[in-house]
Amino acid sequence: MATHQRLGDLAEALEAEGADELRVHVVRRAREFKRSWVMMAEALVEVRNRESYLDWGYEDFYTYCSLELQLKQATADKLTGSYVALKRHAPSVLKRDGLNERIPTCDAVDYFAKALQKNPSNDGGERAVAEEVVDELRHAVFEEGAPVSDLRKRFNPVFNPKPAGAEQMDTLRRATAAVRRLERTIEEIEGLPRPTVRASLDALEALREDLSALLERTKAQYAKTG
């Protein structure tokens, strides 16, 4: 017998015995927690599709989510969008219990859905990204259960490529920020000879200015070629 079924039977048995309400509640939560985001998302999609929020006195779906469920619009969109993507592209996942069979995280499914939005297929041509890569992403999300951090490392270069020069400019920004942190740290250190501190700060300031100037030149260079 599957774990979720055992927990369900246990909850029913405890309830029939008149067990403490909190005890029954915790057992039911143990059964549901692995599927919690899917269950919540499914309910939200149903409310949105039926426009039930109108009957409950709310003028729109997002107002209902915000005031009654304490969900921000971005969160509601992520949940509903991920559920729709799951139902369309991997409906068999909806049958998983989340205990014996893993359910991908909402963030991972959201990544998959947004990747497809940026790379839609149509009858007039092929995807911008090879179908094999899309299949690899689908497998990583729905079969491997890869976390979204791994998905970004593996697939961002394909689905979210950085514009020309972006990596170099990011490096310059990180270097500039590191210099600023070092300047603050040196100023806080007690016991260093003041001439040494002053010389170090002057050198770091000069380096920071050179980095900033190089960043501006790099921006201008790629703006011309963009």
Structure write-up:
- Helix 7 (106-118) packs parallel to helix 9 (148-159).
- The longest helix has 32 residues, at 194-225.
- Helices cover 72% and strands 0% of the residues.
- It folds into 2 domains: 36-159, no CATH class; 166-225.
- It has 226 residues and is mainly α.
- The chain is elongated, with a radius of gyration of 26 Å.
- Residues 122-127 have low confidence and may be disordered.
- It has 11 helices and no strands.
* Structural class by secondary-structure content: mainly alpha
Shape: elongated
Helical content stands at: over 70%
Approximately how much beta-strand content do the residues carry?
under 5%
The whole-angstrom Rg is: 26 Å
The largest pleated sheet is described as:
none
Strand tally is 0
Low-confidence stretches: 122-127
Q: What's the end-to-end separation, in Å? A: 60 Å
Mean pLDDT: 85
Order of helices and strands: HHHHHHHHHHH
Q: Count up the helices.
A: 11
Short recap of the structure:
With 226 residues, the protein is mainly alpha-helical.
Which helices and strands occur, and which strands form pairs?
Layout: H1 3-16, H2 21-32, H3 36-50, H4 52-55, H5 61-68, H6 73-89, H7 106-118, H8 131-142, H9 148-159, H10 166-188, H11 194-225
List keywords for this structure.
226 residues, mainly alpha, 2 domains, 11 helices, 0% strand
